[in-house]
Amino acid sequence: MNEAPSQTSASPHLKKPTRKGVKPQYRDDYPAQAHKLCLLGVQDRDLAAYFGVCRKTILNWKNSYPDFAEAISRGKKAADMEVAASLYQATLDRIITTKQAIKCKEIYYDDNGKRVEKERVEVVEVEKHIPADFRSQQFWLKNRNPKMWSDKYLEDDDDAPKAVSLNLGSGLDPYETAD
Fold this sequence. Notes:
Strand order of the largest sheet: 1-2
Distance between the termini: 102 Å
Helix content: 25-40%
Strand content: 15-25%
Order of helices and strands: HHHHEEHH
Mean pLDDT: 82
Shape: flat
Largest sheet: 2 strands, antiparallel
Structural class: alpha+beta
Number of helices: 6
Radius of gyration: 34 Å
Number of strands: 2
């Protein structure tokens, strides 16, 4: 028994994949939806599932509707840039300012000599040091310049000398001929 997988999303646009020969209906609001989905990091297969079509249909829509292709491209690039910026920030030591509530206690004696305590909460700005993340630095360097930062040592054939010649002189012992 070959059953279709059940759809778990509650999207109003999520349909069952179309049968062969039945052309799925493209709608004008699809580019905006695809853009938002791509900002979340979805891939073409996820778009296909959301719109209830196969991946080939997504490719056809990209070719047939330039605004759909452009919306997908913009969404994917924006998401990639956000992640790249976040990764870059994680590679750096940085100081951030946060707000923190502190309890202040005031103790004094009233006119009768009775001890009085008052408490209040103040919100103050606190600077915190966020150390650079070693794994992020490692990932960044390995991907940015793998030739220099790779874990594997790869000897380049282009840089290896082709032949080595040494000048060892005449082969005579210099102490014997010193007379």
